[in-house]
Amino acid sequence: MAFNDLREFIDAARSIGDVKEIHGAHWDLEIGALTEISADRESHPLLLFDRIPGYPPSYRVASNLLNHPRRAALAVGMPPELSKTEMVLRWKQLLKDLRPIPPKVVSDGPLFENVRTGPSVDMTAFPSPRWHELDGGRYIGTGCCVITADPDDPWVNVGIYRVQVHDRDRLGLYISPGHHARIMREKYWAKGKACPVAVTFGQDPLLWLTAGQSFPYGASEFDYAGGLRQAPVEVVKGERTGLPMPAGAEIAIEGEVPPPQEESHVEGPFGEWPGYYAHGARSEPVIRVQTLYFRNDPIIAGAPPLKPPALTLGVPIGAAAIWNYLEKADVPDVRGVWCFVGGSAAGGGAPFIVVSIKQRYHGHAQQAALAALACRAGNYHGRFVVVVDEDIDPADLGQVVWALSTRCDPKSAITVVDNCWSTPLDPAMPPDKRDAADFTNSRAILNACRPYAWKDRFPPVNAMSPELRRKITEKWKYHLE
Ligand SMILES: Cc1cc2nc3c(=O)[nH]c(=O)nc-3n(C[C@H](O)[C@H](O)[C@H](O)COP(=O)(O)O)c2cc1C
Ligand SMILES: [Mn+2]
Questions:
Q1: Out of 98-112, 263-277, 343-357, which region has the weakest mean confidence (pLDDT)?
Q2: CA-proximal residue: ligand 1, atom 25 (nearest)
Q3: Which range (73-77, 100-104, 123-127) has the least confidence?
Q4: Are the C-beta atoms of residues 221 and 228 closer than 8 Å to each other?
Q5: CA 137 to ligand 1 center in whole angstroms
Q6: pLDDT of amino acid 481
Q7: How far, CA to CA in Å, does 319 sit from each of 130, 325, 334, 352, 402?
């Protein structure tokens, strides 16, 4: 089952009782606060905001789209109530089997219902929220897809990079170092040209989910989204840039990003996914909007980062991608992988990775940790890699802490690796490194496995055996109910 646009997805969520409509909430903090409060609740519905003060009725904002595992499963057609381990295994297989399907170009689509160019472009016409109290402005782009092409080698990238509204035809765009659109725009700038860009603000959540994943440079997220939905994404070509945009997008723009020395603007601060405002307010490139497209009754897809442990995306793709890489790197007997704080995107940042292995030889645990650290999904914005034995469920924080507390000797079982790929969003980046634009940090490998050399002399665990549990539960079942 593939969704063609955001509306079809919202309808599907509604049909499983997962949508709450809220009328009258203000774009300034109320939508953001309601999103945060709702995400804390057990029910955690998708929120659809309408009748936003100061805007035409039916100019809407949808939030809490994929930050609950139930709706992330819906987006990709998985059963809604899987255990964490099952989810990782399913995603692992999905990523392995993923065969790219290129998008299909169509000549028309609902996106073209309204077209504005030149002086009639007005980005302030939409109810873009100010999400968090210390945000420096209004963000139309949180649940957005930023579409760019390589000037030398024609392929199209789609990434999630935040977009702030500066004024009628100027938007702010924040892209972290190393991300593909940043590499592309630098290539244009090196040629003395502005970088053409298209951005959609509301689309099939599966495309958006794919845009938040790291695929190799040269591989289009459009093709991978097609592979995941098992049907091509239908796109229209932008009149100005020729860039493809999903035909059913809610709102889209075409424009250009000039070299920063030609024009830039203060961007941020913005409440970021690690739970801080680390990047602060800085001068960043802008998008000069040339053409604006929107559907009748447009819906902005809102996905503000919320302070962990709240999720940005309710999917363990980072863990699944790390596990696939461990297999490629020939690390045997991996029994599970999980990421706490982040890890919902392969390459979107994984500061706390846990790998569970059945130890086979000396140094096996260290090999697993180094491989997890080395792959793109585990390298960017990392901090800790914990390796545990096979009796520990890596997704159960209590078990992981118990293993660390009882099997890890800090002096001998912790290794620090320095000069790794971090980001300005790292809240613990020291001010001097930040000022020097040295966005690297160190990592700690915590080996919480029984020491391999004397593992057979490690004391046994005092919990009952599964057989005894079964026997006693059966015999005493009336007392245990
Ligand atoms: C909800 C969400 C918001 C994100 N916001 C940003 C952002 O503002 N800037 C950024 O550089 N990366 C952001 N990311 C991470 C990138 O989208 C992610 O690393 C992706 O792999 C980048 O695509 P690329 O590999 O094609 O550059 C965000 C990810 C998610 C899931
Ligand atoms: Mn990419």
A1: 343-357
A2: 214
A3: 73-77
A4: no
A5: 19
A6: 81
A7: 31, 10, 12, 10, 21
267 near 174, Cβ under 8 Å? yes
Spacing, Cα 402 to ligand 2 middle (Å): 38
- Are the C-beta atoms of residues 80 and 22 closer than 8 Å to each other? no
Of all protein residues, the one whose alpha carbon is nearest to atom 9 of ligand 1 is 161
Name the residues around ion ligand 2, CB cutoff 5 A: 157, 180
CA angle (309 as vertex; 304, 310 as ends), nearest 5: 35
> Residues for the chain: how many in total?
481
Q: Which of 35, 161, 276, 279 to mutate to test the pocket of ligand 1 (most atoms within 8 A of CB)?
A: 161
List the beta strands (DSSP E) in 201-348.
234-237, 244-246, 251-257, 264-267, 282-294, 299-301, 334-340
Question: Does residue 161 have its Cβ closer than 6 Å to ligand 1?
Answer: yes
Using a 6 Å cutoff on CB, does residue 375 contact ligand 1?
no
Beta-strand relationship, 440-447 and 414-421: antiparallel
Q: Is residue 375 over pLDDT 90?
A: yes
The three-state (H, E, C) secondary structure of 204-223, written as one string:
CHHHHHHHCCCCCCCCCHHH
| Domains, the chain, with CATH or none | 6-301 (2.30.110.10), 317-457 (3.40.1670.10)
Residue 160 CA, ligand 1 centroid: distance in Å:
4
Is the distance from CB of 156 to CB of 189 less than 8 angstroms?
Answer: no
pLDDT tens profile 87-96: 999 999 999 9
Distance between Cα 213 and ligand 2 center (Å): 7
Sign of CA dihedral 473, 475, 480, 481: positive
User: The tokens 């001068």 sit on which residue?
Assistant: 283
> Which residue has the least CA distance to atom 12 on ligand 1?
161
Tokens at 222, concatenated: 């459009």
The C-alpha atoms of residue 274 and residue 339 are separated, in whole angstroms, by 13
Distance CA 289, CA 296 (A): 20
